Amino acid sequence: MSDKIKVGDYVVVKRQKYTKLQKFTNVDTVVHLGKDQIELRHAENQPYHTTFQLIPKEGRNKRLFTLDPVQTVSEIRNLKKLLIKESGMDNRNIVDDRSTQGLSAEEILKLREECESSSEVIGKLVENSKSFAAKTEYSQEKYLKRKEKKYFEYVEIRRPSIRLIADVYWRLDADKVMGVRFDTLSQIISYSGVCGIGRFLLYESGTNGLLPAAFINSIGANTEAKLVHMHPGNVAQKQAIQAMNFKPEQLERCISVNLYSVLRHFYQEGKKKDVEPCAKTDAEPTVEEEVLNNDNAVQQENGSQKRKTDSEDGGPEAKQPKLDEEKATAKKQPWELENAAAVELMKEKFDALVIIAKEHPYNIIKALLPFVKPSRPVVVFNTTKEILLECYMDLKSSANVTYLRITSNWMRNLQILPNRTHPDVVMSGNSGYLLTGYTIR
């Protein structure tokens, strides 16, 4: 993995506390941070974690900037000692209107063009403010932070990591990652025991590839571990996987397959080998029978049309040699090769099972538990506790999984400042629930 920013990689653009995930598609790529447009042309071949100054580009668009790498950043904290010389006792006599600022809007715009840094602009605003000295010290610091946020002209380009991607997704829309907060994601990784040795089975739907990306990251590069990533659709969600810029060697050890397609492939292959079927009873059908019955129903539905066509063309005997020849010469599709590779791993069984599904997970648990070795962890995530309680009772009665527990993380950020330490007022109350246990023979 290169330490330099390259065209084609995903990067994280950080401006103060705001972060944005962006693909550096080509040298003309422009990233939008609010109303500002920033060209990434001069970031190519620069080391990650480099700080760049925003340089206004000449032209009509005053919000278009280019990047200039810098060594040190003039931070607002250095100005606090210079600008906060005296403070008031309270803010009762302060009138919050535009008359307190001696500079007009036109003069402030001219300042932004003339001054070399945001610190100079903020210094001029403080000098011409009639109410700054009368504010309390806390109000003065809030004023400086607000102006810093508005006039701050530095960005940092960082390498994508699981933590950064999880935070970006969570801040934009938590529903796009099924409400999986980073602390919950770390619990899933910890309970499942994902490492560089073993084979792991993951069913995921609705997290934009965040979970498989976290698993591949935990497996690491140049290891023996393999991951089978099952999903319900035709194409797996891989945005987070692509954003991590993994090596091809790591991506090859992650096999993404459709759940129903690979189960059908597995049981049909077992049927072809003349595996002795279980004695039929009046009990509910097994997972294998359900998969094969669904496949046979589809084949029977299409069979009438096929027989009609065959009768018009002279019968199936006339077409059989031609069909055999086409099958022999036809190349297998990529999804067929992935199914075959996943089936081989399913025969050897897995060292952990993790399920994060928008659907009710019990049928998925029932279908995938036979492919997990004994004494291996099982982790199921859901946003609703009642659904996991149903799975808990069913697994408890079936006696396939022991040491079942349902847990929920409750994380709250704290503001740690002198004389004003308190929890954040706005926070997420819940990040879903985890059902964990261990398989038994």
TrEMBL record:
Region ranges (Disordered): 274-333
First-listed, main subcellular location of the protein, grouped into a coarse class: nucleus
Biased composition (Basic and acidic residues): 274-283, 319-333
Compartment list: Nucleus
Chain ranges passing through the membrane: none
Pfam families to which the protein is assigned, alphabetical: Gcd10p
Keywords: Nucleus, tRNA processing
InterPro entries documented for this protein: SAM-dependent_MTases_sf (IPR029063), TRM6 (IPR017423)
Compositional bias ranges of the Polar residues kind: 293-303
Annotated signal peptide: none
Function: Substrate-binding subunit of tRNA (adenine-N1-)-methyltransferase, which catalyzes the formation of N1-methyladenine at position 58 (m1A58) in initiator methionyl-tRNA.
Subunit text: Heterotetramer.
PANTHER family noted in UniProt: TRANSLATION INITIATION FACTOR EIF3-RELATED, TRNA (ADENINE(58)-N(1))-METHYLTRANSFERASE NON-CATALYTIC SUBUNIT TRM6
Family of this protein: Belongs to the TRM6/GCD10 family.
Name of the protein: tRNA (adenine(58)-N(1))-methyltransferase non-catalytic subunit TRM6
